[in-house]
Amino acid sequence: MSETPCLRIPKNFGEKGLAVAQRMGLLNREFRIQREQGFLYIPLTRKPLANELSELKLTVPESEICKRQFLERVERQAKIVDLLSAELPPHVLASLPQAIDFIGDIAVVEIAPELEGYKQVIGEAILRSHKRVRTVLAKSGAVSGVYRLRTFEVVRGEARTATVHREHGCVFHVDLAKAYFSPRLSYEHSRVASLVRQGETVVDMFAGVGSFSILIAKKHVNVTVYAIDMNPDAFELLKKNILANRAEAKVKPILGDARQIVDERLMEVADRVIMNLPEKAIEYIDVACRSIKPEGGIIHCYEFSDTAEPLETAKNRLTEAVKQTDRRLEKILLARIVRGIAPFTYQVAVDADIR
Q1: What are the tens digits of pLDDT across the range 229-264?
Q2: Alpha carbon 192 to chain centroid distance?
Q3: Residue 98: half-sphere exposure toward Cβ, Cα within 13 Å
Q4: Are 226 and 248 a contacting pair, CB within 8 Å?
């Protein structure tokens, strides 16, 4: 038994509460959900932030955050271990992949060097334990290059990197070898889309396959989103996804570098700018500021940080970058850690009001 933060909700709101906790990345799958006297207790990975708590309250008004002891849930990991216990030496079982990304019917894993010779049996175990998976890919390189691509090795199942992924009611055609996509950004997609107001014009400077742009279009009746990407393969997938989600009246795809596109076509048009290119977003702050309307707007900037205080570092870097433009940073609206990407290295989101 272990005491952990949890979400207490009435049973009849169970499906909604579970869905929002999962979407925010708060659901702790290591523990079992409890039922008691008409309430569900959903274990969380951490205490929700203020904005997350507000969204929970909107979705489930009678929800409460508390602490409770939970029984550990071991079935899923134990099942994979059981499948492999006869095929792997005991001393390497502890190195089995702890995290699996599910993108459509593809499972993506990172296999430790000491398991290099066991990739196929690990892939087979994943196929057997996750019936909807048709392909298991192993990461065989870091995300790199202008297009943020990674190389993969098919270790089991169908030899492909393309699939159809569903997220928040949207359909996304993705090809992991040709365009960057991460299911771990699901909550960020929803969070930013929920902040957009009717009538806004949004510039998505590094749109990829359209994860932010299309969800914004699906959530709002009256919006215009300019979705820019310089990767031709991502651009083709973006156009395909716009059609698949019937968003062609709201999402305008543009192929090219955001700096050139903004300066040529999108000066002073945006109420909101999305900058999801953590490696280089800070270099485009001047472009984002030029695209914002004269009366001001909001920037959602994403960065990687490996300092002792990642949030403060990201806020300070954004503040200094805006000072180099003719705009003013009115207020930092939010700074949050999106996810860890390596030991002591984080992806950070900073929302700023620019005037």
Answers
A1: 999 999 999 999 999 999 999 999 999 999 999 999
A2: 11
A3: 4
A4: no
- CA distances to 92, 100, 114, 120, 127 from 153, in Å: 21, 15, 16, 11, 15
Structural domains present in the chain = 2-70 (3.30.70.2580), 75-160 (3.30.300.110), 182-354 (3.40.50.150)
- Does the pTM of the predicted model rise above 0.85? no
Of 161, 229, 218, whose CA–CA distance to 190 is shortest?
A: 218
Report H helices in 130-209.
186-195
Q: What Cα–Cα distance (Å) separates residue 24 from each residue in 21, 102, 233, 339?
A: 5, 16, 29, 11
Residues contacting residue 315 through CB under 8 Å, at least 6 positions apart: 332, 335, 350
Residue that has been written with the tokens 């190195």 in this structure: 95
Residue 66 burial (CB < 10 Å; 0-12/13-18/19+)?
exposed
